[in-house]
Design brief:
Rossmann fold; Isoleucyl-tRNA Synthetase, Domain 1; 4-stranded antiparallel β-sheet; binds arginine
Length: 554
Amino acid sequence: MDYKAALAELLSNTGVEKEEIEGYITKTLELSNGDYTLPCFKLSKKFRKAPAMIAEDLKSAAEANLPAWIERVDAVNGYLNFYLNRGEFIKNVVTSPYPTHGKNGKNICIDYSSVNIAKPFHIGHLLTTVIGGSLYRIFDYLGYNVVGINHLGDYGTQFGKLITAYLKWGNGEEQTMDSLLKLYVKFHDEAEKDESLNDEARMWFKKIEDEDETAVAIFNTFKETTLREVDKVYKRLDITFDSYNGESFYNDKMDEIVDMLKQKNLLVESEGAYVVEMGEDIPPCLILKSDGASLYATRDLAAALYRKRTYDFDKNLYVVAYQQNLHFKQVFKVLELMGFDWHKDCVHVPFGMVSLENCTLSTRHGKVVFLRDVLDTAVKKTLDIINTKNPNLEGKEKVAEDVGVGAVIFGALSTGRIKDMVFSYDKALNFDGETGPYLQYTHARCCSLLEKGNYDSDKAVDFSQLTSDVCYSIIKHIDAFDATVVDAGEKYEPSIISRYLIDLAQLFNKFYFDCRVITDDEAATTARLKITAMVRDVLKKGMSLILLKAPEKM
Ligand code: ARG
């Protein structure tokens, strides 16, 4: 039920437009002020009266035909407070906790994680990977047909260098991410002494471009090695992609873009290179270098057009760090200049930087923090905690994996995405803090209560048992679940769901410590188990939207 609209309707005979009143009504923060409130000062101009008097007048108007779902209205300090009938409200929510969105027939592309071949999958990729993975699930929940795209960084002169190094020093050895990284470093060291290596690298790069069989075969081994490695991490994070079309996929699709730009007189020569000018406030977008080579932006233009044609997207998201703000501004602007009205459906979803607490490693020194190692460390620390707190836990390795990985994911998704963050294992693994493990622990607590109380979902519930402030608060919060997910989707902000879940877990734990769930009173127990089951379900559903597993025992 849309309460704001219904409340506005109730006051519609007072001379104010229904829509206007609806816009002013807000949810209250404190139960002591009712459930909804209308700040009457917003209407004082219209009525030419003091807010307190308006509130009194509207109160009388509302009371003249108060429907059963409202308990009472109060005029306090110029506010009109509405108290819902708790029993009625609870019945509605218990009967249908949150709606299911049918398929809406819309397609959404989400470009995320987008790793670079032969480069380490490091902590810098954590945010794009989990924000994108979470948005994938959020839009799936909302009824979209989601296309997850890993726009692989698989094109560039560095691959010519890598083939050169591989043939000289790496052939025959087992290929791993570490060995590729070492080859790359070695190439640069050696090339400083021997300039001819660079010529060789250019030759191999040219061969890749010409699709020379040997070059492509070697390059493909780099790709396989990288994907094998990142797939292990994707599995642990439970993330999937529908397409791995990377930059090289667009090799043969850029001529069309260049032709279109020429036709529309958008391509301008500048010092031998070709650019698109885009007005005062944005620097020109480089399309072709003076040697005719294409650029990152050229590939993204081809990719956007390809995505529009292939998926006919309603929205086309790019979950990429804010360092690329200018890049996406330029790409979207070029699309606009080209006359594609769907440029407005392309959205850059930027995010801040992650660093590790107490970690001084820097990429400049050739040392990086591998994402795999971060997950391993978190899992190991979790296992240590389990071994002290609950050493006999069945399947504790699996639980440690779910909780350790979950702690890292939640750490990344718990703050607004645009903020830079410092990741701390201790904070992320604090079972009593605002963390992933705290959510999982609360979920497991619900599961064990339900098991202990022999919860039977078919048993009739006496709703009057649930009208206390704490129960009612929980039920109101459960009722807000769907709107929360909608909001998170609209803002491309998984942290809204993280916040929601922490609040739910805190409310539930307050309930758990205030009232005993399982008592001698049969009716009370049945009702409290019902709330417990609803919290369990919403926690589990919400956690899955932010990529968290929900073990039943911890
Ligand atoms: N591989 C790029 C990087 O690591 C990110 C690619 C993002 N996606 C895109 N369509 N440009 O910076």
